[in-house]
Amino acid sequence: MAVCTLAIPPDTEQVRVARLVATAAARRTGLPESWIDDVRLAVGEAVGRAVVRQQRAGTLSPVHVRLIDEDAGFAIEVADTAAGIGADDSTLALDLITGLVPSVHLVDQAGAGQVIRMEWSGDEATQDR
Asked: Which stretches of 7-127 are DSSP H helices?
């Protein structure tokens, strides 16, 4: 298993960096070319959502992006530290991510923000949609 970790400043201009790195990592893992745009869009939505959450929480802590090449496939985790910001109005971003990614998990970390885990399994990824 290979893991690449990025720490993105909570600035919307930095979302592009995460998209570019995720796209390159997805290609490197052998994800079908027809899925690369989905990776780019999903990561952009997830990181953009995390950046906005960080800004709303008033924290300068970076958004962490983990790109994971697993035996079973490819996964991306986007973590923020925006704890206690109240109601989350990012349902559109989550809906888009869910529509683009075969498996999505949103985990609340008690007092430490949220993690979105997006997964493309080897079986799903090897099939062209």
From this structure: 15-28, 33-57, 91-100, 122-125
pLDDT surpassing 80 at residue 88: no
Pairwise CA distance, residues 107 & 12, whole Å: 22
Q: Assign 4 to helix, strand or coil.
A: strand
- 86 CB neighbour count, 10 Å cutoff: 7
Two structure tokens written together for 3:
């893991």
Query: How many folded domains does the chain comprise?
Result: 1
* Euclidean distance between CA atoms 128 and 34, whole angstroms: 7
d(CA 7, CA 121): 25
pLDDT tens across 57-82, in order? 999 999 999 999 988 889 999 999 99
Q: Looking at residue 53, which CATH number applies to its domain?
A: 3.30.565.10
Q: Which residues contact 92 (CB under 8 A, 6 or more apart)?
A: none
In which domain, by residue range, is 101 found?
2-125
CA distance 111 to 40: 29
